[in-house]
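Can you give me the bound-state structure? Components:
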Amino acid sequence: MDESSTVIETKNLTKRFKDVHAVNSLNLRVRKGEIYGFLGPNGAGKSTTIRMIMGLVRPTSGEAYVNGRLVSGGAADIRNAIGFLPERISFYNNLTPVQTLNFFCELRRADKSVVPKLIEDVGLSESANRKVGTFSKGMTQLLGVAQAMIGGPSIYIMDEPTGGLDAMWVKMVRDKLKSLNEQGATIIFSSHILSEVQSLCDRVAIIDRGKLVAEDTIESISSGLNIRPRLAINSPGLNGKVPDWVLKVDGVEEAVADGDTLTVTCPSDARLSVMTALQKGGLAVKDFRTLEPSLEEAFVKLLSDGEVP
Amino acid sequence: MPIALRPIYTIAKKEISDNVRNKWILAMIAIFLTLSIASSFMAGEGQIGDMERTVGALISISSMLVPIISIMLGYGSISGEVESGALSVVLSYPVRRVEILLGKYLGLGAVICFSILVGFGVSGLTIALTTGTAQWAAYFDFILLTMLLGMLYLSLSMCFSSILKRRVTSLAAGIVVFFLGLILGMIMMGAWMATGGSLDEMMTGDTSSMPDWLWFEVFVSPQDGNGAAAMLAFGTTEFFGFEMDLPPWISLGTLALAQLIWTIVPLTLSCIFIQRRDI
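Here's the bound-state model for the whole set.
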């Protein structure tokens, strides 16, 4: 990978709490301009890794770099380039959103005239003069997204950015992240919601028990795990039974019937043969679609058998 | 790496604004003003007493109240914000941990000092207009010493807040240190009497039998040191509540220096510990 395109890098990053390795020799690289997903079960070490990259937690060993600069070197100006949303966001309860964002603008020496627009962007205009202490969790999260955007940083690090939000606001945050990325920002975010990561990310890193299990595009991880695309056929009259003659079609590896839906694992050049076989056997093909490998399948497979592609 | 002044200013300004907004400053000014006027009336037996008698009546209460206020302001300043997660957000900005600490210390310190200055200052003006300005310099020294006591306990409480994980533990540590300061004199006096000392001698002002280590009490207990220094400002030599000749090395200057050391050392430790802790 071209070093100059690396915005965040960890080298053997390790954090030990007494006898527990929360993060164990983690080596990650995030490229400029990508949306990078960070996945893992609860307690995998995602938040600890993010906090070490942000300089909030000191590594036991190893290093983290932001834009080529060592995080533990103490230079605070590294964080000029970063907009951060921690997992558990909290502000000063006695301040309004306007006062809160003004304070952070001063810390970043950013122009305060952007504050009304930031508040509007996250849908908090009606609550702009209410104290943050009266906010719901979702509203606080939205304010967190707004503060991360102060100064227009080139890197966004977000730990569970849609946590606590309802569907409408989840979409808003997701759209916002996409828009920021289209403007050139690099986005790193951790999430439990695999569908969200799948829909947004260029690459993902999956960690489990502090160790990196996989880091690549979803397609590469899936193909490495031998998770193939499948063909889902809606065939009225199937009644949950897989016809024998479908299994005999050249290239078919597996077929599962659920009601009138037949799901077949086969290469793309065998799909026409499968549908022809169904029709020859007296079953109609009402419609069909391709099921691409899902991140969830890869995630479950990786964590259940520890397989690394 | 040099410390930047601008983020310190921003943080300090926020702390001051918070305490103006929540009317803490007004409340403290009212407390100090009421306390000092009431003490003056008590000292003057129903009329405004002069400055020395006012301070004599006031010192025992102010040397308890000011530390309590400082502890209340400082105990959650770091550990509380780590617990709530607010400090994680602030530290995602280009500001160093030491700058945050110093900004909070200066901001909260300004709140305490301003409240003391206005509260005791207005009452001092009232007393001066009524009884004369003969002791205004000593009264001003008393105000400065009270501010120093406030900064001292703020430094201690923020030190605990920087070291300890939870705000509740920080508060407990501050309260323990406060009470130790209150009772240290009694403990040391008890130890002296248990080793052959006599209270009768102290009551006559005879200090010949008093060991040096007993005198050190005013350097070790911030409250008692503050009280002794305030009395010395008015030319009164008082120790353990009794008038007596003090050793030459106990003076307003040495007591103020001790209080300054009590302020600087915990603050320095705070700067060290805040850089090491995980947020």
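A couple of observations. Chain B touches chain A at residues 1, 4, 6-7, 10, 14, 18, 21-22, 84-86, 88-96, 99, 276, 278-279 (CB under 8 Å). The first helix of chain B runs from residue 5 to 21.
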